[in-house]
Records
---
Amino acid sequence: MTTPTRRTPARLADTRALLFDLDGVLTPTADVHMRAWSRLFTPYLEAHGVAPYTQADYFAFIDGKPRYDGVRSLLESRGIELPLGTPDDAPDDDTVCGLGNRKNAEFTAELDEHGVEPYPGSLRFLTTAIEAGLHVAVVSSSANAVVVLRTAGILDRFPVVVDGLVARQDGLAGKPAPDTYLDAAGRFGLTAAECVVVEDATSGVEAGRNGAFGLVIGVDRGAGADALREHGADVVVTDLADLITELPQPAVSTT
Ligand SMILES: [Mg+2]
């Protein structure tokens, strides 16, 4: 039996750019999503006189699914059938897409009202990387990436943001396809081998492996270190601050 040849991962100190996933890597956005779903379904289910919405519903029917699929699964669990509608439906339309769009409005409202802070360790890692002269980009499937970055106060750190809107506009396949990460690398004029992918989801580290990036860092926020490694992470940490000392050293001014 032959084992496939594996590339030697690049050292963090030798790379040129860091390409960060957003939700779960830079910001704890999952909490904001959970609260937004609750804001949507608590009054909706109450008005329909069915079993009330609980956090268990989130994990059973919604978590990890595309938004409209999550709406449909939750409604099915309560025996409510709605027409699918279209993504252009207004947030108050009583369709699956309408409800999904309402959830998005609740997400933005949650951000406005309560804000979101970057993970402190991620912020320190990011700041050190920028000081060391590395290029940094955000590569996220979310259509809300820019508003999340702005709310977290770190939008101005990122000259390149490849988010769900850019992907749709440019016809880029989503993770685990490497296309969105490759697009970000290309915007810096760099090859995949010169860039690092930083991800918390198995589909994300897989995108890093599929694109043959120089190094794939898995941040374990619950996916599990073994799962992240199996899907392509070269290194797994629970806090990006653990990798700060491995970044290139900032250029020392000699003037
Ligand atoms: Mg993520």
---
Amino acid sequence: MSEFSSPEEIAERLAISPKTVREWLRAGELVGIKVGKSWRIHDLDLARLLDEQLFNARLARAQKIHPDLEWTRGQCRECGMLMPEPRKFHNPHWVCSAKCRDAYDDKAAAITGRGTEEFADCAGTVVPPY
Ligand SMILES: [Zn+2]
């Protein structure tokens, strides 16, 4: 049962006001169910909202760093996190963070005997905006 939280529990976890959580629910940004007069939110739906907000922040940063590129929705090749990707310069080794880059590098080295450093050609000149 612990996978469902009240707006108050979520507010405490994120150090925000319960009013903000209820506004997300009313606006349909956060999916929840109403039990009597109170809302219950599944952990996965909260995670989805936070992932989406993080994606939007990363998209804004990517557009600021490379305003010349058209950005699209992509995913980290290591953890699957939503991640803006440039439409034209497809990078098959796109990752969301330095941590994922290191983990991806280790796997690549284990499989191919070389790190992703050597894939620099296909990575092109655009680097992920972390
Ligand atoms: Zn990742």
